[in-house]
Input
Amino acid sequence: MAIHERTLIRPPITRPGIPGSDAAHSDAPRMPSLRHFGPNWYATVMGTAILASAGEALPVDVPGLRGACTVVWAFSAVLLVAVLTARTGHWLHHRDQARTHLLDPAVAPFLGCLPMALLSVGGATMVAGTPVLGERAALVVDAVLYTAGSVLGLAVAVTVPYLMVVRHRIDVGSAAPAWLLPLVPPLVSASLGPLLIRHLPAGQGREALLLGCYAMFGLTLLATLAVLPLVLARLLHHGPLPLALTPTLFLVLGPLGQSTTAVNQLADVAPGAVGAPYATGLGALAVLYGVPVMGFALLWLALSTALTVRALRAGMGFAMTWWGFTFPLGTCVTGAAGLARHTGLHAFGWLAEALFVCLVAAWAVAGARTVRGLLGGALLAPPAPVRPTVTA
Output
């Protein structure tokens, strides 16, 4: 007889696991509670805001698209306020659970979603919210959200790995794609910094922000190069992820697409911030770096899609991890659009458009299932205890 238990990272954490999944027990109370409202809910904000930004980045003019992006941006801003309010209520009324989240290696990485939510809404405000707010007001909103998101992002990038080292118990071979979440916020700052660089006066401030963005780009890039081999080794040596966690494979696309976006966006503003030799080199870097990384992103997208189809056929139900399909895909859209801009190749534009269609579909499905789960109470229900399965 062989007994198999699904253990995510630490045995004492109960799953199947994941609050807010179809696997949650059906006896959950119908009354909503904030006790199990975790930091992963910021992914709904990220996934919505990137939809607006990605639509604005497309190298094609579709009638009505810009207006739709503005509506989506407004919805993401409202969603950000709602989630921030709910998370504040969680910390005020359920502090014990909030501390438990910090010490849970399966939940703590999702703290990286907060700064990315702030940054993504701020960036979407500049590219999609200006027609409503005006350029000056949009700039102020973006500056505030960018500053808060960048500071929080750098803090999370240090704090979560520190907790993983000194407080979390992590089994050998338990590396998860979610480990990338606390490392990506500085890269999001790097890709959105150019929106503010354009509005800074020429001089030290503009150059400092440009080079600071490249420093944050390097921070996440090198950290990703350290974590990604662990994730791949976990898949090769231990097989596919548990069904509910399979969508997190798409999180790997985040740093790939976001870094491609960053080098292209930074190359656009480099000529006004640094001297000609460096500006020219940074323009070349956008293509020399972006094209190979986009190629690997497409490889990972194909692998993740195949494993997701396998999981669906095996009975994978909805969980909040499905929002992992949205933001990473959005970064690939903006990355491909940037390459289309710098290379002049229509193929990259077509790629951006195809990925955008996939993004819209993923956002619509995840959004509809989230609303259904909220109305039914399953998404705020406590996780059911793990039941081991026994096979002969």
Notes: The chain has 13 helices and two strands. Confidence is low (pLDDT under 50) at residues 1-19, 22-31, 386-392. The first helix runs from residue 42 to 57. The beta strands are 2-4, 389-391.
